Amino acid sequence: MQFSLRETGKSLPLITIGLIVLNILSIYLGYKIYILRYIPLFTVLFFLVFYIIKTPKTRAIVVSIFVMLALRELSVFYYYKSFGQISYILLGCLTYSLIIVKRLDMFTTFLKDRAAIICTLIFIILNILILNELIGLVKDSYQGTFQSGLIFLFGVIISLLGAIAVLYNQVVNSDRSLAFVFFVFCFIFSDVSSLLGYYLDIYFFYYIDFICATLGLAFFVYTVLNTRNNEEENNELTEFY
Fold first, then answer.
1. Do 206 and 200 meet the contact criterion of CB atoms below 8 Å apart?
2. CATH assignment of 11-240, given 1.10.12, 1.20.1070, 1.10.600, 3.30.1560?
3. pLDDT digits 0-9 by tens, 46-88
């Protein structure tokens, strides 16, 4: 399937590659050049400005998602403190909840699909078991059980979002729905890599985190700008059930 760049412009892939290079440099040289540590925040703000410039109609919920992501990048600078970790995870929960709200039409379809609900519940249970093992490895980093509870909530939300993304692509099967799947799973890989990198002190995971986050933002911008097939998608969602 070929991605159309009519709404986003042919510059989006080049911009994304450039931002990926900058993010890699921010990891490699960040300890030497402090300003490079702001590159992930700059990346979010750059895509926000790109969206505002390109879109014919700015949507408040999309801007809110970008703002949440920007605030989450700011919380990274305080991650060594308890409130920084809580803010990062809580803002992640709020961001992904907003994305679910944005795809509320797909959520309604999801609730009508018993197979999707069962698969999601199984996925959530497996996810919680995996998270429980990971939390067991890094439990000394937490202050009480509140952060553990947030991690579990975060796992449930991203599991639900992943299921909605897959079902959306199965029903619509368009370049936009495929980009939405890539966006969601890039962010999932980014968040998991971020947590593993920090708590297990494995530096390589940060490269996966930053690259996936940048790609995820690019795919997100593509989905919110590519609105030419909205009416056709809505008809397919209505006819599916």
1. no
2. 1.20.1070
3. 999 999 998 888 899 999 999 999 999 998 888 777 788 888 8
